[in-house]
Amino acid sequence: MKNEKGESSSTFKMGNSAQERGLPYVPDCYVVPPSYEPRDALDSNSEIVPTIDISRLKGSDDERQGVIQELRSACQLFGFFQIVNHGINQDILDEALVVANGFFQLPAKEKKKFMSNDVYAPVRYTTSLKDGLDKIQFWRIFLKHYAHPLHRWIHLWPQNPPGYREKMGKFCEEVRSLSLEIMGAITESLGLGRDYLSSRMDEDGMQVMAVNCYPPCPGPKTALGLPPHSDYSCITILLQNLTGLEIFNLSAHGGSGRWVLVPEVKGILKVHIGDHVEVLSNGLYKSVVHKVTLNEEKTRISLASLHSLGMEDKMSVPYQLVNNENPLRYRESSFKDFLDFLVKNDISQGNRFIDTLRIKD
Ligand code: OGA
Ligand code: NI
After folding, report:
1. Compositionally biased, Polar residues: which spans (predicted)?
2. What is the position in ligand 1's atom list of the atom closest to the CA of 214?
3. What is the CA radius of gyration of the chain?
4. Cα 133 to Cα 117: distance, rounded to the nearest angstrom
5. How would you classify the pairing of strands 123-127 and 141-146?
6. By three-state DSSP, how is residue 151 classified?
7. pLDDT at 8
């Protein structure tokens, strides 16, 4: 089908997408249905979003317990929180954003070396959500690469721009040790102890970096950078250069929920509770549904670091969290099970992996 500009929607394949070409209009296949409500976000309001000073995890017992309390409440109410005093140097954050942006500025020929629509590939460059073949397309370009253990994957990463491997590698290592610290606090907050998952996450755990670029969009009210979804990680740690991330606050409006634009404050990192922590908590904590809105003038870069168990290691509900009042609510699953789901399902249509894991009463 051709639109009035003579473009067939089926021609927007990766490498040739509207966002990569910087088209001055939004083609029909990018227009999201009204049910996605791209416009209804609350104003950015930093007081709504929980912000936790995690340096206190290393403090006295009382300080640590204070953080654990805040974490428990943020995970229950939002499935999301921001962290300050995380210990990662600002230069490391800034340089990772610079090399990420540098990669997207490279000539198409250079980026296309990494182009792949194989969701199992350890390094791939593509557009939209999955492979540029989604029913609705999203104004996003991304590079995804595995990052742990670093020595196993780094030689597959881009060599350009110069410094990409070194700067992104440093960022990945720092974020990963932070993820272990946060996961320890999360398992502790569930009464499982801080080492409940540490050996499984430390030795074989996966770290997948989604390096996202959202070019300026001529129709930020009609298209989205990413549709509402939750992450298939245990947790995701996110760094962004501009606002655009919105989270769905389930408990707002007497339970009917409301979108909240997450403010950008330099140096703050964001933490998403992913589907596997929802399973781990037997539903006490909810994975956060989030989406990305677009900017008409500026390019937004985000680095989303997804942390999970090993590829085939199954996350299941701990027996300690199952009792008469809390029956088993989820089936076990692995990261690979998610990838298999992704191949068969179009998540732009609202299909969620977590829904396939629920055990009906
Ligand atoms: C993701 C994601 C948010 C962002 O990559 O899963 O939700 O701000 N990214 O880019
Ligand atoms: Ni996400």
Report:
1. 8-19
2. 10
3. 20
4. 9
5. antiparallel
6. helix
7. 40
Name 35's Cβ contacts closer than 8 Å, sequence gap at least 6: none
Cβ neighbours for 277, distance < 8 A, ≥ 6 positions apart: 75, 186, 234, 235, 285, 287
Tell me the per-residue pLDDT of 44-85, one tens digit each, with 9 for 90 and over. Answer: 565 689 999 999 999 999 999 999 999 999 999 999 999 999
Residue 170 DSSP one-character state = H
Q: Which of 140, 209, 236 to mutate to test the pocket of ligand 1 (most atoms within 8 A of CB)?
A: 236
Which ligand has an atom closest to residue 303 CA? 1
Could you tell which of 140, 145, 213, 226 is best to mutate to test the pocket of ligand 1, judged by most ligand atoms within 8 Å of the CB?
226
The DSSP letter of residue 35 is G
Better-predicted residue by pLDDT, 263 or 90: 90
The domain segmentation of the chain, as residue ranges, is: 49-354
Q: Which helix (H) or strand (E) holds 147?
A: none
Q: What is the largest CA-CA distance in the chain?
A: 66
Q: Give mean pLDDT, residues 79-108.
A: 97
- Ligand 1 atom nearest to 291, measured from its CA: 7
CATH 3.40.1550.10 fits 49-354, yes or no: no
Is the Cβ–Cβ distance between 132 and 195 less than 8 Å? no
Cα 60 to middle of ligand 2, angstroms:
34
Taking the CA of residue 306 as reference, the ligand 1 atom at the shortest distance is 6
Q: Which is the closest atom of ligand 1 to the Cα of 225?
A: 10
Whether the Cβ atoms of residue 207 and residue 146 lie closer than 8 Å to each other: yes
Which residue has better confidence, 357 or 9? Answer: 357
